[in-house]
């Protein structure tokens, strides 16, 4: 059975974060709490690790893996350019339930799936996730479930589905009712909401003060 760490306990949290960081750097998979659902994560720059993540979920590269970051500034090194609309949304909703799709920097050596030159980025509002991300850097993170099964709101739910495919499980408690992040595509002429979740379309429009399209 893979090790699990109760992050409500200070000593266990410290040990768990250290174990998770070692696992990520070794190209292995970890389960971590986020502000939406539990996530299955790995080093975003390890193509082998990302393939392992997709295999663990029984998912193909046609559904690219999003990337979580631990700070606003991290995005600058990951994308081709940060438009004003992205800055406005980051300042309003990060950390939180908003994902942004932007053209990724062509120099990056990563393979997140069939991204067509884009990357979906988010900064989660969860202290355990942020601490790990600030230690290891950007992580490819998808919901910690087998594709087609419910996304888990507890570590136990993730463990039940993924078992020994994961090296380390971090238990951050119940995340509550699963709520997906809102996804805004900023690769076109107008912002496009691909999925409404934790942040409403009206909130996005209010921050940007301009037309926002919906898919």
From TrEMBL:
Which compartment or compartments is the protein found in? Cytoplasm
Record's protein name: L-threonylcarbamoyladenylate synthase
Q: According to its record, what are the GO cellular component terms?
A: cytoplasm
The answer to keyword DNA-binding applying to this record is no
User: Which EC numbers characterise this protein's activity in its record?
Assistant: 2.7.7.87
**Catalytic activity of the protein:** L-threonine + hydrogencarbonate + ATP = L-threonylcarbamoyladenylate + diphosphate + H2O
| Matching Gene3D superfamilies | DHBP synthase
The top EC class is transferase
Domain of life of the source: Bacteria
């Amino acid at each position: 059975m893979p090790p699990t760490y109760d992050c409500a306990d200070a000593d266990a949290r410290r040990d768990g974060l250290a174990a998770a960081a070692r696992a990520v750097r070794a190209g292995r998979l970890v389960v971590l709490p986020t502000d939406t659902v539990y996530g299955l994560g790995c080093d975003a720059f390890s193509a082998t690790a990302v393939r392992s993540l997709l295999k663990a979920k029984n998912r193909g590269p046609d559904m690219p893996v999003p990337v979580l970051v631990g700070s606003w500034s991290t995005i600058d090194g990951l994308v081709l350019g940060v438009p004003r609309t992205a800055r406005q949304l980051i300042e309003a909703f990060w950390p939180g339930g908003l994902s942004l799709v932007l053209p990724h920097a062509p120099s990056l050596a990563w393979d997140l799936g069939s991204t067509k030159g884009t990357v979906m980025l988010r900064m989660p509002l969860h202290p355990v996730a942020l601490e790990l991300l600030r230690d290891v850097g950007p992580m490819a993170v998808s919901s910690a479930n087998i594709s087609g099964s419910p996304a888990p709101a507890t570590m136990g739910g993730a463990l039940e589905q993924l078992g020994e495919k994961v090296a380390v499980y971090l238990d951050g408690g119940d995340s509550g009712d699963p709520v997906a992040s809102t996804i805004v595509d900023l690769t076109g002429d107008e912002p496009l909401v691909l999925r409404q979740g934790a942040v409403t379309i009206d909130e996005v429009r209010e921050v940007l003060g301009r037309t926002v399209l919906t898919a």
